[in-house]
Amino acid sequence: MQPVVTVAEMRAIDEAARAHVPTETLVARAGAAAAYATLARTGGPYAKRVLVIAGKGHNGDDGRVAAWHLARRGALVRTLPPPALSGDRTPEMEKLLAEADIVLDAAFGTGFRGTYHAPGTARRGSAPFVVAVDIPSGVDGDTGLASGSPMQADLTVTFGALKPGLLFADGKALSGEIVARSIGLDCSAAHAWLVEDADLGDLPARPLSAHKWSAALWVIGGSPGMTGAVGLAARGALRAGAGMVRVSVPGASGKELQVPFAPEAVVMAVPAKGWAELVTTGAERFKAAVVGPGLGREEGTLAEIRTIVRGLRIPLVLDADALVALASSGDVRGLLAGRPAPTVLTPHDGELSRLLGHPPGTDRLAVVGELAASLGVVVVAKGPTTVVSGPDRRTYCVTSGSPALATPGTGDVLAGVIGAVLARSGELRGAPLVTTDMGEVARLAALAAHAHGAAAALGPSVGLLSGDLPELVSKLLSGYIAPR
Questions:
Q1: Under DSSP, is residue 234 helix (H, G, I), strand (E, B) or coil?
Q2: Do the beta carbons of residue 151 and residue 176 sit within 8 Å?
Q3: Which residues, listed in sequence order, are joined to residue 380 by a DSSP beta bridge?
Q4: Which of 188, 216, 234 is a domain's end point?
Q5: pLDDT per residue over 397-412, tens digit each?
Q6: Do 334 and 381 share a structural domain?
């Protein structure tokens, strides 16, 4: 995992480093890192025309050092200050932009406040290769929101650690390829981390002693005649390595109990009313449960869900309609308080707003961390960058998702995958996870979310269906989790 630090955290890290390392040394390292990363992506520099737009601060200093390195290797380098904040350009800058092969954007860094209109880079023929130094100028380092019209980068070279602004909102689209380079800063105490593919190897493998009940998961969802969502969750769980997967659809009987997508799941009929008590008293053999996909929003159903939340003593993944039950309870914190086992909430933005009581705002890391801490749960806030946080506010960023997942049912699959991962972790311990394991639950949920997004990338770029995802998850995880 890579550390992700806020602007304030990076400022503190810089100040701590300067007690031992001169500022000039850090600038020299950053500029060299930017230059060498540029060379690695653009080939030999000899006779290439490089325009460096360097501001007055340390970000500009980084750019000037990079310019020196590129010039030493034969590049034809010109360094200019950024245009006025209005975006006005001098004839000289117009000419250099039109001729440039490479543009280094070192106008402003992560602490910039104001509105910046970068010079345009459109010209005849191929456009120059644009490298942003630390962050595209004009992008907020914490939220990713662009102020004005920043330059679109092909490559962003950031230093020490990733910044939230590179992972969210406009910054995610404007940064291009992102590489983080060490310049001797200690970022190990970061509260947020980016999940990477290699981290999937940390997911638990099933032990040699495994049997179907040792990683059992109960999935409760759907309604008579509407079992697609709960079927997708069950299949996601099965393909993510759960053992016994039991599916219950309140009020369904006979042919209505047939669950699409997951014929291997074991179906158990439960009544339309009073099913919560049956589940809470019959879950002693299960390591986790998923509640919510397709359950419906009738008040009686929402009341049953609240009974489950209060009474179930195993890890619980609450998705979709279960989140409605929480938000409409009038006392979300009181409802969740005292649960003896971990709770994972999986809201999209609309559900997150209902849980918060207001729109989530622009600082995703802070908002999700505060909600998780206040409720004592793990929150998996789904989005272009999914944010996962636990009660200790240690936070994980998941960027493996793509627009291909913007189709009905993919969230149901994710809920099943998270449930399976929690059940398998309980299998290794020989007992369900408990509330003292909340840090581990957050990490596992983040890994599950990353696997879900990365699996989608293995499918078709156009027309990916939620029903495709479970098999893709199985294929992906099989490449990282070695059999015991």
A1: helix
A2: no
A3: 388
A4: 188
A5: 999 999 999 999 999 9
A6: yes
Using an 8 Å Cβ cutoff, are 291 and 318 in contact?
yes
Quote the tokens at residue 277. Answer: 């008590």
The candidate with the shortest Cα–Cα distance to 190, out of 167, 155, 164, is 164
The secondary structure of 58-99 as a DSSP string is: HHHHHHHHHHHHHHHTT-EEEEEPPPPTT----HHHHHHHHH
- Half-sphere exposure at residue 396, Cβ-oriented, CA atoms within 13 angstroms: 25
- Reading phi first (left if > 0) and then psi (alpha if -120 to 50, else beta), residue 449 is in alpha
Asked whether residue 484 is domain-assigned, the answer is: no
Please check whether residue 399 is in contact with residue 167, taking contact to mean a CB–CB distance below 8 angstroms: yes
* 162 within 8 A of 2, measured Cβ to Cβ: yes
pLDDT, tens only, 257-275? 677 778 899 999 999 999 9
Got the DSSP string for 103-117?
EEEES--TT--S-EE
Nearest to 247 by CA among 277, 217, 210: 217
Encoding tokens for residue 131? 């490298």
Q: Which residues contact 345 (CB under 8 A, 6 or more apart)?
A: 318, 323, 326, 355, 375, 377, 378, 379, 380
Within a domain: 36: yes
Residue 389 and residue 448 in contact, taking contact as beta carbons nearer than 8 Å: no
pLDDT tens digit string along 135-172?
Answer: 999 999 999 999 989 999 999 999 999 999 999 999 99
Domain count, the chain: 2
- The C-alpha torsion from 434 through 435 and 436 to 440, rounded to 10°, is 80
Residue corresponding to tokens 């983040």:
446
Output phi, psi for 411, to 5 deg. -65, -35
What is the model's pLDDT at position 197? 97
Whether 166 and 23 share a structural domain: yes
**128 and 221 fall within a common domain:** no
Residues 303 and 235 in one domain: yes
**Cα dist. 67→28, 62, 202 in Å?**
11, 9, 41
Which range of residues forms the domain containing residue 47? 2-188
**Cα 286 from Cα 214, distance rounded (Å):** 8
Element holding 4 (H helix, E strand)? strand 2-4
Measured N-to-C along each axis, helices 23-42 and 58-72 cross at an angle, to the nearest 10 degrees, of: 50
Examine the domain organization and report whether 312 and 430 are in the same domain: yes
Among 432, 469, 465, residue whose Cα is nearest residue 449: 469
Tokens of 201: 């190897």
